[in-house]
Amino acid sequence: MGTTVPAKPLPNFNQDISPWQVLESLGESVAVVDRAYRLIWMKDPLISQIRGPVPMIGRHCYKVFMGYDSPCPDYCPVAPVFATGKPCSAERHFIRPDGKEAWREARAYPIFDGRGSVAFAARISFDITHRKIEQSRRQRDLENLERSLEELSRLQLEHLPFQPGAPGLSPRELEVLRMVAQGLVKRQIAEVLGISLNTVKRHVSNIFNKLGVNDRAQAAVWAARHNLV
User: If 0-12 CB within 10 Å is exposed, 13-18 middle and 19+ buried, where does residue 119 land?
Assistant: First the structure.
Protein backbone atom coordinates (compact mmCIF):
# COMPACT_ATOMS: atom_id res chain seq x y z
CA MET A 1 0.00 0.00 0.00
CA GLY A 2 1.44 3.39 -0.91
CA THR A 3 0.69 7.06 -1.46
CA THR A 4 2.28 9.55 -3.81
CA VAL A 5 2.64 13.26 -3.05
CA PRO A 6 4.76 16.14 -4.36
CA ALA A 7 8.24 16.37 -2.85
CA LYS A 8 10.29 19.46 -2.07
CA PRO A 9 12.82 20.46 -4.74
CA LEU A 10 16.51 19.73 -4.29
CA PRO A 11 18.57 22.60 -2.84
CA ASN A 12 20.63 24.79 -5.19
CA PHE A 13 24.30 23.91 -5.46
CA ASN A 14 27.31 25.78 -6.80
CA GLN A 15 27.61 25.34 -10.56
CA ASP A 16 31.21 24.14 -10.14
CA ILE A 17 29.98 21.00 -8.34
CA SER A 18 29.30 18.07 -10.66
CA PRO A 19 25.87 16.35 -10.59
CA TRP A 20 27.50 13.14 -9.39
CA GLN A 21 29.06 14.95 -6.42
CA VAL A 22 25.62 16.26 -5.55
CA LEU A 23 24.13 12.77 -5.73
CA GLU A 24 26.97 11.33 -3.67
CA SER A 25 26.17 13.85 -0.92
CA LEU A 26 22.47 13.03 -0.62
CA GLY A 27 22.58 9.84 1.42
CA GLU A 28 23.08 6.12 1.06
CA SER A 29 19.94 5.00 -0.80
CA VAL A 30 20.36 6.97 -4.03
CA ALA A 31 19.84 5.75 -7.60
CA VAL A 32 19.33 7.34 -11.03
CA VAL A 33 16.92 5.93 -13.62
CA ASP A 34 16.13 6.83 -17.22
CA ARG A 35 12.74 7.22 -18.86
CA ALA A 36 12.51 3.47 -19.41
CA TYR A 37 12.94 2.98 -15.63
CA ARG A 38 16.40 1.47 -16.16
CA LEU A 39 19.02 2.02 -13.47
CA ILE A 40 21.97 3.96 -14.85
CA TRP A 41 23.71 4.74 -11.55
CA MET A 42 23.51 3.62 -7.93
CA LYS A 43 25.42 4.61 -4.86
CA ASP A 44 27.68 1.88 -3.49
CA PRO A 45 25.89 1.51 -0.09
CA LEU A 46 22.61 0.92 -1.89
CA ILE A 47 24.22 -1.74 -4.08
CA SER A 48 25.53 -3.43 -0.92
CA GLN A 49 22.03 -3.40 0.65
CA ILE A 50 20.35 -5.08 -2.31
CA ARG A 51 23.08 -7.61 -3.18
CA GLY A 52 21.40 -8.80 -6.31
CA PRO A 53 22.59 -12.00 -8.01
CA VAL A 54 23.28 -10.13 -11.27
CA PRO A 55 24.59 -6.63 -12.09
CA MET A 56 21.86 -4.07 -11.38
CA ILE A 57 22.91 -1.24 -13.68
CA GLY A 58 20.73 -1.44 -16.79
CA ARG A 59 17.96 -3.37 -15.01
CA HIS A 60 14.53 -1.90 -14.33
CA CYS A 61 14.17 -0.15 -10.97
CA TYR A 62 10.81 -1.77 -10.25
CA LYS A 63 12.39 -5.20 -10.67
CA VAL A 64 15.40 -4.41 -8.50
CA PHE A 65 13.64 -2.55 -5.68
CA MET A 66 10.19 -4.17 -5.65
CA GLY A 67 10.53 -7.46 -7.50
CA TYR A 68 7.81 -6.44 -9.96
CA ASP A 69 7.73 -7.35 -13.64
CA SER A 70 6.19 -4.00 -14.62
CA PRO A 71 6.24 -0.43 -13.25
CA CYS A 72 4.93 -0.07 -9.72
CA PRO A 73 1.17 0.64 -9.79
CA ASP A 74 0.94 2.52 -6.50
CA TYR A 75 4.45 3.26 -5.22
CA CYS A 76 6.30 5.09 -7.96
CA PRO A 77 7.61 8.62 -7.43
CA VAL A 78 9.61 8.37 -10.67
CA ALA A 79 6.74 8.31 -13.19
CA PRO A 80 5.24 11.65 -12.06
CA VAL A 81 8.68 13.26 -12.30
CA PHE A 82 8.99 12.33 -15.97
CA ALA A 83 5.41 13.42 -16.59
CA THR A 84 5.52 16.79 -14.83
CA GLY A 85 9.17 17.68 -14.38
CA LYS A 86 8.51 18.23 -10.68
CA PRO A 87 9.81 16.36 -7.60
CA CYS A 88 7.53 13.70 -6.12
CA SER A 89 7.48 11.36 -3.14
CA ALA A 90 5.70 8.11 -2.26
CA GLU A 91 5.25 6.07 0.90
CA ARG A 92 4.95 2.30 1.13
CA HIS A 93 3.70 0.16 3.99
CA PHE A 94 4.73 -3.48 4.11
CA ILE A 95 5.31 -6.43 6.44
CA ARG A 96 8.86 -7.54 7.08
CA PRO A 97 9.85 -11.23 7.04
CA ASP A 98 9.81 -11.16 10.87
CA GLY A 99 6.15 -10.11 10.77
CA LYS A 100 6.71 -6.52 11.88
CA GLU A 101 5.23 -3.52 10.09
CA ALA A 102 7.55 -1.19 8.20
CA TRP A 103 7.33 1.94 6.08
CA ARG A 104 9.64 3.44 3.48
CA GLU A 105 9.50 6.77 1.72
CA ALA A 106 10.95 7.23 -1.76
CA ARG A 107 11.53 10.64 -3.31
CA ALA A 108 12.35 11.35 -6.94
CA TYR A 109 13.83 14.50 -8.44
CA PRO A 110 14.18 15.51 -12.11
CA ILE A 111 17.57 15.75 -13.85
CA PHE A 112 17.26 17.95 -16.94
CA ASP A 113 19.24 17.78 -20.16
CA GLY A 114 20.58 20.78 -22.07
CA ARG A 115 17.21 21.37 -23.74
CA GLY A 116 15.32 21.55 -20.47
CA SER A 117 13.70 18.12 -20.78
CA VAL A 118 13.70 15.57 -17.98
CA ALA A 119 16.34 13.05 -18.99
CA PHE A 120 16.69 11.12 -15.73
CA ALA A 121 15.21 10.92 -12.25
CA ALA A 122 17.20 10.67 -9.04
CA ARG A 123 15.49 8.35 -6.57
CA ILE A 124 16.24 8.54 -2.85
CA SER A 125 14.61 6.27 -0.24
CA PHE A 126 14.33 6.42 3.54
CA ASP A 127 13.17 4.13 6.31
CA ILE A 128 10.36 6.04 8.06
CA THR A 129 9.09 3.18 10.24
CA HIS A 130 9.85 4.90 13.55
CA ARG A 131 8.15 8.10 12.45
CA LYS A 132 5.02 6.28 11.27
CA ILE A 133 4.79 4.23 14.46
CA GLU A 134 4.99 7.41 16.53
CA GLN A 135 2.31 9.03 14.37
CA SER A 136 0.09 5.99 14.76
CA ARG A 137 0.60 5.99 18.53
CA ARG A 138 -0.28 9.67 18.80
CA GLN A 139 -3.36 9.12 16.65
CA ARG A 140 -4.53 6.27 18.91
CA ASP A 141 -3.97 8.47 21.97
CA LEU A 142 -6.05 11.24 20.41
CA GLU A 143 -8.84 8.84 19.49
CA ASN A 144 -8.89 7.43 23.03
CA LEU A 145 -9.01 10.96 24.43
CA GLU A 146 -11.87 11.91 22.13
CA ARG A 147 -13.84 8.81 23.12
CA SER A 148 -13.27 9.60 26.79
CA LEU A 149 -14.42 13.19 26.33
CA GLU A 150 -17.51 12.04 24.45
CA GLU A 151 -18.33 9.62 27.26
CA LEU A 152 -17.77 12.36 29.82
CA SER A 153 -20.05 14.74 27.93
CA ARG A 154 -22.81 12.11 28.04
CA LEU A 155 -22.54 11.81 31.81
CA GLN A 156 -25.48 13.60 33.37
CA LEU A 157 -25.24 14.70 36.96
CA GLU A 158 -28.68 13.43 37.76
CA HIS A 159 -27.61 9.91 36.77
CA LEU A 160 -24.81 9.68 39.30
CA PRO A 161 -25.18 6.66 41.62
CA PHE A 162 -26.50 7.40 45.07
CA GLN A 163 -26.71 5.13 48.07
CA PRO A 164 -30.21 3.85 48.88
CA GLY A 165 -32.22 6.46 50.71
CA ALA A 166 -29.82 9.31 49.90
CA PRO A 167 -31.74 12.51 49.21
CA GLY A 168 -31.81 13.59 45.58
CA LEU A 169 -30.20 16.88 44.66
CA SER A 170 -30.76 18.90 41.53
CA PRO A 171 -27.91 19.09 38.98
CA ARG A 172 -27.14 22.67 40.08
CA GLU A 173 -27.16 21.67 43.75
CA LEU A 174 -24.74 18.86 42.98
CA GLU A 175 -22.41 21.36 41.32
CA VAL A 176 -22.57 23.64 44.34
CA LEU A 177 -22.05 20.72 46.73
CA ARG A 178 -18.92 19.65 44.86
CA MET A 179 -17.49 23.15 45.10
CA VAL A 180 -18.37 23.41 48.78
CA ALA A 181 -16.60 20.10 49.40
CA GLN A 182 -13.57 21.40 47.48
CA GLY A 183 -13.30 24.38 49.82
CA LEU A 184 -14.73 27.16 47.66
CA VAL A 185 -16.55 29.94 49.51
CA LYS A 186 -19.95 31.22 48.37
CA ARG A 187 -18.54 34.21 46.48
CA GLN A 188 -16.12 31.96 44.52
CA ILE A 189 -18.94 29.55 43.67
CA ALA A 190 -21.02 32.44 42.37
CA GLU A 191 -18.16 33.60 40.14
CA VAL A 192 -17.47 30.11 38.77
CA LEU A 193 -21.13 29.35 38.00
CA GLY A 194 -21.98 32.87 36.88
CA ILE A 195 -24.86 33.21 39.32
CA SER A 196 -25.65 35.68 42.10
CA LEU A 197 -24.39 35.30 45.64
CA ASN A 198 -27.96 35.12 46.94
CA THR A 199 -28.67 32.21 44.57
CA VAL A 200 -25.64 30.37 45.91
CA LYS A 201 -26.79 30.95 49.47
CA ARG A 202 -30.21 29.53 48.57
CA HIS A 203 -28.62 26.43 47.00
CA VAL A 204 -26.42 25.86 50.02
CA SER A 205 -29.40 26.17 52.36
CA ASN A 206 -31.37 23.66 50.27
CA ILE A 207 -28.41 21.26 50.24
CA PHE A 208 -28.06 21.40 54.03
CA ASN A 209 -31.79 20.79 54.48
CA LYS A 210 -31.90 17.85 52.04
CA LEU A 211 -28.80 16.21 53.49
CA GLY A 212 -29.74 16.90 57.10
CA VAL A 213 -26.40 18.52 57.86
CA ASN A 214 -25.58 21.69 59.74
CA ASP A 215 -22.37 23.00 58.17
CA ARG A 216 -19.93 22.83 55.25
CA ALA A 217 -17.75 20.18 56.90
CA GLN A 218 -20.65 17.75 57.29
CA ALA A 219 -21.73 18.42 53.69
CA ALA A 220 -18.20 17.70 52.46
CA VAL A 221 -18.14 14.39 54.33
CA TRP A 222 -21.48 13.42 52.76
CA ALA A 223 -20.15 14.30 49.29
CA ALA A 224 -17.02 12.23 49.83
CA ARG A 225 -19.01 9.20 51.00
CA HIS A 226 -21.13 9.42 47.86
CA ASN A 227 -18.09 9.68 45.55
CA LEU A 228 -18.94 13.19 44.43
CA VAL A 229 -15.41 14.51 45.05
Answer: middle
Task: For residue range 131-182, list pLDDT tens digits in order.
Answer: 998 988 888 888 877 776 666 555 544 444 444 444 678 888 888 998 898 8
pLDDT tens sequence across 46-64: 555 555 555 678 889 888 8
* Helices and strands counted in the chain (H then E): 9, 6
**Sequence-distant contacts of 64-68: CB under 8 A, at least 24 apart:** 64/39, 65/125
Judge whether 87 and 95 are in contact, CB under 8 Å. Answer: no
Amino acid at 12: N
Rounded Cα–Cα distance for residues 174 and 123 (Å)? 65
Residue 17: which residues within 8 A CB-CB, separation 6 or more?
Answer: none
Measured between alpha carbons, how far is residue 174 from residues 10, 107, 133, 159, 181 in Å?
63, 59, 44, 11, 10
Q: In what order do the strands lie in the sheet with 39-42?
A: 2-6, 88-95, 101-112, 118-127, 30-34, 39-42
Domains assigned to the chain: 2-129 (3.30.450.20), 160-225 (1.10.10.10)
Residues 6+ apart with CB under 8 A from 64: 39, 50, 52, 56
